[in-house]
Specification:
Elements (H helix, E strand, L loop, with lengths): L2 H7 L1 H21 L1 H26 L11 H15 L9 H18 L2 H17 L6 H32 L2 H19 L10 H21 L10 H4 L1 H23 L1 H4 L6 H20 L1 H36 L1
Amino acid sequence: MSLLQKITTTDKSINLANIALMLLSTGIAFVIPFKLFLFVYAVLGPLHYLTEISWLDKRNFFIKQKTQIWPYVVIATLLTVAIFNEKSVLRYYSVSLIICVVVYTLCLVFSGKNGVSLLISTLVLILALVIKADRIVFLILAFGIFLPTIIHVFLFTGLFVLQGALKNKSVTAFISLAVFIACAVSFAFIHVPNTEILSVTEKGYVHKYFSILNQSLAGLFNINFDRNGNDIFEMPALIAVQRFIAFAYTYHYLNWFSKTSVIKWHDVSTTRLGVIAILWVVSVIFYYVDFRLGFMVLFLLSMMHVFLELPLNVHSIKGIIAGIKSR
């Protein structure tokens, strides 16, 4: 192993690199929060989905049998139909479907039995439909809005950092976790005037596809705003929320690609890498031609990668609990 490889593959060097990426993501998010988010979502997002699904596939998706992923694929497809077909009745049951996925994952991880997992998750789905879960605000926020977005890109990323720190007992890993939290909190306390200039088209994309996340996070802190106006682009509190969102997504993607030497997502056949590269280029072209088209085409892939990662997330939480107990 060369000196360069040793430098770039040690835990300390990887942690320091990630600290630098956190600070970089934070700095850019302060300056151009909306443009940064749109850029990383359209360019880094699809590459992340493709490479992570490929990586999960090589590890059996952290479940006993690959065939057990079919409910994830089916429900992700149903949700895609619900989102982009205004006449579909499925849009009134999307939260219930996501709750079903979470319960199915928990059952798979803790029991490993496909029949039991399907039965329990089906019963929970029926219960969710009976209590009209899709009309309960807390469940809408927790499962319908935050789980596929900020919980996935921010909370689970933080948990992965914590798990690595507990596992390796690395000082720099704990420092990186502290920096991660500090960067996230900084947007609430550091107020910088937003001078970002957005086109009408960019504002339209943000309003149509992503304002619900910004507004939902703002609602948690009782921030009053005009949902139909330009407050999201002008109100300091909502701009601070957008900076946090841009940081969370940007670092989530960069963190994945920075740990190539550790997780080895690139360690696949040349053919698979070629297919991933081609699909990624096509995805970016879709976004470049029409952001709406790219969003529609890639939404299914996005939801599948969120669902397929859930077993790993559960295993990570179990690892953190075990790590804390051992200390």
